[in-house]
Amino acid sequence: MPDAYQSQPHPWRKPLLIAEFSALAVLLASMGWFSSRTESGAEFSPAWLLLPAAASLVVFISFIGLMYLRWVVAAAAERRTRHKVVFSLLVITLLGVWAYGIANTWISLSHA
Hints:
Layout: H1 4-7, H2 13-39, H3 50-73, H4 80-111
């Protein structure tokens, strides 16, 4: 028989899902807006790239938060430390890949 506590979702789950999908909508809308601006030949400031960069960071952080709830919070007490270590390595990797992508984009724009 399932435990009553396990059937209740974590209180942070809904806000994280809302933040993730809202940021994803902002990210997709900004990509569409950039696409329409470049097709028309209009110039835009590279500072506008902060909008999709921030939105993608919110998507990553929300995704990481949801993974934390699923992998670490739901883990048994005797395995929680191991899950935290593995999760920390995964977080460092994901945020490193995000930072590398943002840095490469910014550098390629400044050299263009």
